[in-house]
Each structure stands twice: as C-alpha cells, then as structure tokens.
Design a protein that fits this description.
The structure is a single chain. A hairpin with a 2-residue loop joins strand 16 and strand 17. By secondary structure, the protein is mainly β. Helix content is 0%, strand content 40%. 45% of the residues are buried. The chain has a single domain, classed as Jelly Rolls.
C-alpha cells in the first residue's frame, strides 16, 4: 500500500494514517477499498467502530484506473462480488439524519445494479443508493418494505472519469450531490426501511451487480453534511 504509519496525524484501527475528517466521530463506515496485494482487494473499515467486512472475492484491485491510492476497486458485474458489513445497530439509519457518499466511475451503463443497499442485498425495498439507469445514478428509500417512499437522481455517471456522489438527510429532505453540486431535493419523512441492519456493496436485490470502479465509501449517522446548494467533496480517506 502506498501509505503507511507516520509520526503524526490521525490513525485508523490498523495504524494507517488517515486524512483529517471533521465528521469522523459520526462515521459508521469508512471503506477506502485499497490494494490487498496480488490483485486482491483490502476491505478494511477505518471508521471509529471498525466492522469486519465479508468479501465475496470477485471484486478486485486494479491500477489502470485510479482516483486515489494508485488504483481502484473494480466490480466486474458478475461472480461473488458482494462486500457485506456485519449486522450492527451502527448501520441502522432509522429516522435521524445521515449522509452517504462515494466516488464512482462506471464501466457499463446497464441498469439493475447499485453501489449500496442498506440491507443484506437480498431484499427489493431496502434503501438503494447509486442504482444505475442508462448512465444515471439513482436512490430509492422505503419506510414500509413494500414500496418506495422517495426516490431521485444523484446525477450522471461517467465511463471516462470518477465523480463524487453524495446523499444527505436532515429529517425532512434528502439532498443529492454530484461533485459537490446539488442535483435534487426530495421530501422524505420517516424511518428508513432496512431488512437487516447492515450494508451490501456491489450486490443488490438478490443478485443484481454493479459493473463499475468504486472508491472511498463513507457513511455517517446523525449528521447531514450539507443542507445547501453545495457539499464539500472530501479528500481521500487514507493519507497518501
């Protein structure tokens, strides 16, 4: 890995130095997705309460395309590519404020896929973030588990460059941002439905799989990182 222990700065659970994050105390998942060696993917969570992630193994580390760290995670759209967080109340969004963000560069524009599902990846109405539809990324939120209560665009994806996508929720509105600019404001009130208090990456709705490069997934609970027309795009999770 091109980053290591230093004599200063903030350190993660394995001694790796982190970039400053004023909201780190509210982070429940900080997932850089870095080089695990030999083409494998390191799925270490650097949040204050680190989760042991389960890696299906089909997503890989590659160096031809990068945002940070000299490469990026590649999800091929096939095989056992699900990265799954354990069941924990940390990952239960509930009715309070939250924020979700990641960097994304699509490989194909195919639909029936998504970056994140707030559940075990086997339920149709658990919250979806980054659902790909003809080159756009969308979000869907349910309160009942039997239909969508809110949905909207997070912005256009791209197959030539990474873009930063974010959602924030302040208790009454979900706001979506692409590269720090507001895309949509959608009224929403209620408890986010999740069929399990966990997060699935790269594999949703019982088998649909993204075909994309992904970096630096961040989930914060109890804080909406922006309620205005802009959002500050963060630097990398890990100090390079």
């Amino acid at each position: 890995m091109p980053f290591g222990v230093a004599s200063f700065g903030m350190f993660g659970p394995t001694g790796v130095r982190l970039n400053p994050d004023p909201n780190r105390a509210d982070a429940v998942l900080l997932l850089p997705l870095t080089d695990g060696g030999g083409g494998s993917l390191d799925v270490t969570d650097y949040s204050p309460t680190p989760k042991t992630m389960t890696d299906g193994g089909a997503a890989s580390w590659q160096t031809s395309v990068q945002k940070f760290y000299g490469g990026a995670a590649s999800f091929p759209g096939s095989g056992s590519q699900q990265i799954l967080a354990p069941v924990t109340t940390d990952l239960q969004l509930g009715a309070g404020s939250w924020s979700v963000m990641f960097f994304h560069r699509r490989i194909t524009a195919a639909g029936s896929s998504g970056v994140l599902q707030f559940g075990d990846g086997a339920d149709s109405y658990s919250m979806l973030v980054g659902y790909a539809d003809a080159g756009n990324l969308l979000f869907y939120v349910s309160t009942s588990g039997s239909g969508w209560a809110a949905s909207g665009s997070i912005g256009a994806s791209d197959d030539t460059a990474f873009h930063h996508f974010a959602l924030t929720y302040d208790g009454s509105n979900i706001r979506s941002y692409r590269d720090g600019s507001l895309v949509a404001t959608v009224a929403f009130s209620g408890t986010v439905y999740q069929n399990a208090n966990r997060v699935s990456v790269g594999h949703i709705q019982g088998g649909s799989k993204i075909n994309a490069y992904v970096a630096d997934i961040r989930i914060y609970k109890g804080v909406a990182l922006s309620t205005g027309s802009t959002l500050t795009v963060p630097d990398s999770i890990l100090a390079e």
